[in-house]
């Protein structure tokens, strides 16, 4: 058997008009890679039966795995079930159990189910129904001409769950490859993707049981590690072995495992250690506090945030010495130290974290170019401060500076050395 | 001549592996709609000559306009020029002027141009070169079999400029349709896309010279208006007429024209009127300040921001009365009023803007469910406060609440009535 290949098909007029960016395709493809299945074509078509039929035929002719999203809803434009049935010569049946579940769902909301919803209980004959744990429209799997054709709704939240819970296990089972796969997602911060790739390329090359995949989520890079073993225990062992090697090579550049962002990782550490933090922001302008408060329950550890763009606010709110502001400027070590210490004192938090810098595009000088960043962290024991040189782009500088602030918290809470001034080695960051 | 149709082709292994979300396709398609050109197919392939060739042939056979992005860079994987030439039977030539410009560019950086970069000066014979104002790799236009095949780099920043400056004008000129088009982008906030569509559908239906397109940028909806006229002046007149009708119907729901976000629109109004603002944030957790500081030069009008999650911080930082917190809770009208007033007084700003609410997922009650939001704005004349009911999702609640805060500023600066408590009528917001 040759290595199975996939086509990903997304359906919807709104995609063809460019009204929304289609993120389903990259999600499907990244997840298929965890089963070592390469996607070779992404195709999007409008809600047009002829075009849909043509693309579905081409997909089944060229790929053993076909993932389709969209066109399973209740409206007239939702044609996927009908077109799949006609294209592959199947009849359509209405599933009584699915219909009953939908009616019960509407009753639970105190609403009558409108007749158009009933068509979401229709399936091509021979299809296996894929439950949708978070929406009304189930998906289905149809085997056609040696290919597995999976159809899901287009709503990302719904298809994410269905891919992981219903689709990937079925693909793995049908492929009947020897052994099982175990996978882990490592979140890294501080290295560009190409550096990461070259640092780790030998691991996959020298070990046929291991696959590595990359995904960018600026400023982080996500590293997907997939390991194959003859059984679950062996695959898990293989996975842990590789993950350990990667962690040993990258050290603190691996900030966590799983989809959770750095703000959630830091939040959990603060909770565990019962520590609190307060943030004083100049160049990050509130983004650091906003990231921290993206995490439910963050009120337990974020005591206060202050956005102090002006020198006046730095003095009044944080008690920064006007003489230091005059002598060194707002973007300087003495000022960032006083910001962190002032915030810690006034809030009573265990840690005071401060940023000041030149986000750009204006305000740079030879001595302090756009992208200059000072970070300081004050604790009961001491205050540390360091300078970094970021990029030219305001939005990216805010993101990077906030991420570096969070990373200082993470490393401090773990007792790891803070990143040095050559950090982060991203593309576009001058060295 | 039938209405021309487009295929959009994007090329790159990183897209097939799902490492990045491909936003170029929706951009291309939305921009093509401004020329009344419908996209009928999006296809993505890996950096694989055979697959690329197959897709390019299908594109040219099925569409008069073909937009291709990716594969024009300096690396071995960049194959677009070579594959296009071979697929359509053209030779390849190296353009001396483009080569010289690239060498000069590298010299200006004090660096030697590496030999692999030279291939970015290669083009299929008969191609028209499309300058790239922001990168090293130019694009090109090749006429093949009655179709216009445009190739651009895959870097969004580069292709955005090239589409608007080089590609759309060439398409418009070659189509040789009677008249010219003028276009405007209206940013709306407060209505869902389907409501917007039904409110305005008659405008395009009753007027063949007008096309409307929609794009979602949560929580805003962007409305693209395209008008055709026999000459520029008439098209402009037609456009203004339609835009005026839309503005009259939607009133303050149109927050601006062009790509600028609400934070930039509000920033410009503050600058013009020489007003300053300070923000006190509970449920928005710093996002409001971060949005304001996304705008370069915002230090001129944002005096201060405070993130006061805890009751203690609300008292200490903003002087909120503990008795009010006890009697009404942190999410209440008296507290949000004191937050806005306290922030205005301590900062000396013209406006004090405050948010408090239950972002979720926890913390809701029957009386104050998840999604409850209080906003207050204090000025020298008065303090206004209002309650809104948002959604169940924490991330969307933060975005919506910050957007409502900015909208309060915009309307106040313009002297328009503030949005009532049924605002915003988005999908997913319960009514």
Task: List descriptors.
alpha/beta; Alpha-Beta Plaits; Molybdenum Cofactor Biosythetic Enzyme, Chain A; 14 helices; 3 domains; 431 residues; Maf protein; homodimer; five-stranded mixed β-sheet; six-stranded mixed β-sheet
Word description of this protein:
Two copies of one chain form a homodimer. The two termini of chain A are 48 Å apart. The model of chain A has no long low-confidence stretch (mean pLDDT 92). Chain A contains 14 helices and 17 strands. By secondary structure, the first copy, chain A, is of the alpha/beta class. Chain A has helices at residues 13-16, 24-33, 49-62, 80-87, 96-108, 156-175, 193-205, 232-250, 262-273, 287-293, 311-318, 322-328, 333-347, 394-414, and strands at 5-11, 38-45, 65-69, 92-94, 122-124, 128-130, 139-144, 147-152, 180-189, 210-217, 220-229, 254-257, 277-281, 302-307, 351-357, 372-378, 383-389. Chain A has three domains: 5-175, Molybdenum Cofactor Biosythetic Enzyme, Chain A (3-Layer(aba) Sandwich); 180-257, Alpha-Beta Plaits; 262-414, CinA-like (Maf protein), CATH 3.90.950.20. Chain A has a six-stranded mixed sheet, sandwiched between helices. In chain A, strands 14-13-15-16-17 form a five-stranded mixed sheet, with helices on both faces.
